[in-house]
């Protein structure tokens, strides 16, 4: 009798765990300093790239220095433009020119030869990787509910996925077999629509990984997520059991039709995790700000409480709070603070960082020579004073 009662109790507990409301399952956020450092380290690169783009969008790629100074608040530039130029030599050249014919010459900024060479190389890398960009745009559309996404929303994520500034016009016109621009770009109701479904693009990173492992081992591997809980991370027993049962559910491809799934079901959560995993995998840095992901809630059927999903699946994702904004990071993409498999378009960032570091080395050398000159002058002055005495 006792054993039967115990069995009933265990079965009842298992039922409660399986049917537990997702919203009731909480995970305490735990800081990951290594992944936070990755975001902190990129702040300088991102700030410099924003300033470069501000000048890039100007006619003839030149701007009066005082105009750029007025835009500091919008650019979130914490220092004066002149200080910025001094700290990052090699980006711009300063020259005098007139804003209007009858006005006095004022300082203008234009690209340095090195920065222009970088921008030319950037364009070459983008052109060489155009098939990858086409595949990315197709994948974003193929995962969406109606296979159509607002052009304005796609422009907002061009940096995250490595799309060039003119990608909507260029890719749309060169690949009409894949995309169609509905409406006029720049208008409120303009969209990019998928024209044809390419089955080669309809394979997620998780599915391709399982396929490769199957070919290597000769054993059929089931698609599944990599779980990397950080050291010292603790989950309550109820949450561990729910995650274990959830992981046993069949993988649902982000490219499959999910219209039949209940929004509150574990299966829908499995599919949504797959969508986020794929989106972060397609991104250049394998991380995207949570508010940016939220812009696509309608297209990808994210629930209003979707940010909690990253916390529940802390072995798959990490949410950084650096910079006062939540950023979803794909854990498996990093070995401590190093990005493992870099996107081919990541080379653009690497080359820009090299350009910045070259300028920083020149600045240090300039400051060293200045210090040595001051020390020589002081030594010569001391020698003259001693001779007079």
Automatic annotation (TrEMBL):
A Pfam family per the record: PORR
InterPro entries (alphabetical): PORR_domain, PORR_fam
Amino acid composition bias (Basic and acidic residues), ranges on this chain: 364-379
Region (Disordered): 364-389
Transmembrane regions: none
GO molecular function per UniProt: RNA binding
Residue intervals of the PORR domain: 31-360
Protein name per the record: PORR domain-containing protein
Species of provenance: Amborella trichopoda
Source lineage: Eukaryota, Viridiplantae, Streptophyta, Embryophyta, Tracheophyta
């Amino acid at each position: 009798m006792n054993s039967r009662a115990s069995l009933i109790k265990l079965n009842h507990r298992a039922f409660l765990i399986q049917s537990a409301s997702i919203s009731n399952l909480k995970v305490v956020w735990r800081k990951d300093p290594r992944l936070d450092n990755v975001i902190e380290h990129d702040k300088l690169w991102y700030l410099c790239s924003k300033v470069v783009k501000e000048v890039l969008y100007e006619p003839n790629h030149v701007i009066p220095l005082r105009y750029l100074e007025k835009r500091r608040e919008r650019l979130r530039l914490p220092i004066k433009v002149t200080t910025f130029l001094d700290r990052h030599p090699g980006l711009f050249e300063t020259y005098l020119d007139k804003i209007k014919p009858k006005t006095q010459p004022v300082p203008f900024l234009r690209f340095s030869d090195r920065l222009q060479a970088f921008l030319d190389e950037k364009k070459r890398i983008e052109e060489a990787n155009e098939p990858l960009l086409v595949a990315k745009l197709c994948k974003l559309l193929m995962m969406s509910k109606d296979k159509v996404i607002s052009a304005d929303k796609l422009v907002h994520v061009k940096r995250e996925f490595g799309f060039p500034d003119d990608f909507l016009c260029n890719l749309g016109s060169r690949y009409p077999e894949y995309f169609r621009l509905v409406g006029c770009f720049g208008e409120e109701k303009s969209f990019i629509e998928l024209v044809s479904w390419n089955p080669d693009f309809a394979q997620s990173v998780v599915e391709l990984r399982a396929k490769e492992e199957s070919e290597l081992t000769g054993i059929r591997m089931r698609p599944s997520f990599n779980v990397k809980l950080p050291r010292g991370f603790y989950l309550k027993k109820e949450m561990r059991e729910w995650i274990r049962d959830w992981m046993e559910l069949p993988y649902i491809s982000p490219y499959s039709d999910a219209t039949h799934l209940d929004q509150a079901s574990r299966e829908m959560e499995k599919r949504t995790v797959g969508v986020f995993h794929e989106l972060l995998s397609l991104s250049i840095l394998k991380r995207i700000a949570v508010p940016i992901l939220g812009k696509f809630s309608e297209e990808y059927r994210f629930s209003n409480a979707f940010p909690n999903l990253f916390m529940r699946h802390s072995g798959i994702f990490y949410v950084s709070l650096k910079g006062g904004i939540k950023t979803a990071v794909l854990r498996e993409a990093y070995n401590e603070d190093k990005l493992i498999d870099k996107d081919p378009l990541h080379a653009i960032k690497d080359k820009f960082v090299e350009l910045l570091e070259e300028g920083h080395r020149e600045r240090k050398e300039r400051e060293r020579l200045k210090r040595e000159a001051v020390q020589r002058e002081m030594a010569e002055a001391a020698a003259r004073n001693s001779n007079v005495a």
